[in-house]
Amino acid sequence: MCRSLTTKGNRIAVIGAGFVGSSYAFSLLNQGIVEELIIIDVNEDKAKGDVMDLNHGKVFAPDFTSIRFGHYDDCTDVDLVVICAGANQKPGETRLDLIEKNIKIFQSIVDQVMASGFSGIFLVATNPVDILTYATWQFSGLPKSQVIGSGTILDTARFRYMLGDYFAVSPNNIHAYIIGEHGDSELPVLSSADVGGVSINKYINGSNSYKQEDLDDIFIHVRESAYEIIKSKGATYYGIAMGLVRITKAIFRNENSILTVSALLEGEYNQQNISIGVPAVVNRNGIREVIQLELSEKEKQQFSKSAHVLKAYLAPYFG
Q1: What is the C-alpha to C-alpha distance for residues 178 and 189, in angstroms, rounded to an integer?
Q2: Does 307 score more than 80 pLDDT?
């Protein structure tokens, strides 16, 4: 069982010191929200180099963080294991193209973490994140609340940023979600989106300045953003690293924040036995509950299609 709230600390093991893992570690240090950070990677030299580099910057950090290189047995007493390891998405590849390579990697990682006696929360960042979140739950045997994927947290952030730019307001005042697969079948929930409490549909219908076609283009840009970034610089890592830190803060501060993470559904949205991006309440114990949005008929169909895509890819491994 998970430790009680009174005995938990803020200790993290990051598995994978690649672009995402090292960017996440850097963001954690700068925000001062972790007491102990252990970096684990098969490339020990890279992980040790990151540890040294990060330690040299601690004098500039807001709070002290113990940072060290480690191995899987060090996961015994950590509160959160964040998995960033795995094969990266290459130009021309979809996230779903990575399944076979990364499922094998994940079985090895999760087996070794669980062998240490770990009983905390898994946070999965590696793509395809929905598939690998489900795999982590299967391999670990932990309660579904303790296995969280980064889901569509970055897609939602991109959406809010682009909508804020379009309406010329702060993205913090945009409330809109991207849900479904973190990938090509994801969908925007425009039926309940608002700008400072005013429905986006009202904005569109009451103005000559804004058009539905523009919103459609914004969503396409959101969906294609990763491909554009990968084409430009080879990988995406800053945005997702900050998204992972946001989830980490919600866990360690027991925030009960609603974030679009990959969560296991057991009847919600009329879906069973699948991990997929949905808004969920995240706190010190992991996922407290899934929030069920009132979707339009079109959005229900799109979500069902997205879930079907993921189930089809899961079937050969967990059918």
Answers
A1: 6
A2: yes
106 and 225 share one domain: no
Task: Answer yes or no: is pLDDT of 32 > 50.
Answer: yes
Which of the residues 56, 71, 175, 182 is marked catalytic? 182
- Cβ atoms of 89 and 127 within 8 Å: the answer is yes
Task: Please state the rounded mean pLDDT for residues 87-100.
Answer: 76
Residues 134 and 261 in one domain: no
Q: Are strands 286-290 and 272-283 parallel, antiparallel or unpaired?
A: antiparallel
Q: How many other CB atoms sit within 10 Å of the CB of residue 131? A: 31
State yes or no: is 182 an active-site residue.
yes
Q: Give the number of domains in the chain.
A: 2
pTM of the predicted model, to two decimals? 0.94
Domain boundary among 132, 149, 166: 149
Report pLDDT for 288: 98
Q: Which spans in 168-283 are helix H?
A: 200-205, 212-233, 238-252
Q: Check pLDDT > 80 for residue 92.
A: no
Domain boundary (92, 121, 149) is at 149
User: Which CATH number does the domain housing residue 224 bear?
Assistant: 3.90.110.10
Residue ranges making up the domain that contains 201: 153-235+254-314
Q: Is there a single domain that holds both residue 141 and residue 165?
A: no
- In tens, the pLDDT along 226-260 reads 999 999 999 899 999 999 999 999 999 999 999 99
Average pLDDT over residues 207-225: 92
- 4 in a structural domain: no
**Beta strand 187-195 pairing with 286-290:** unpaired
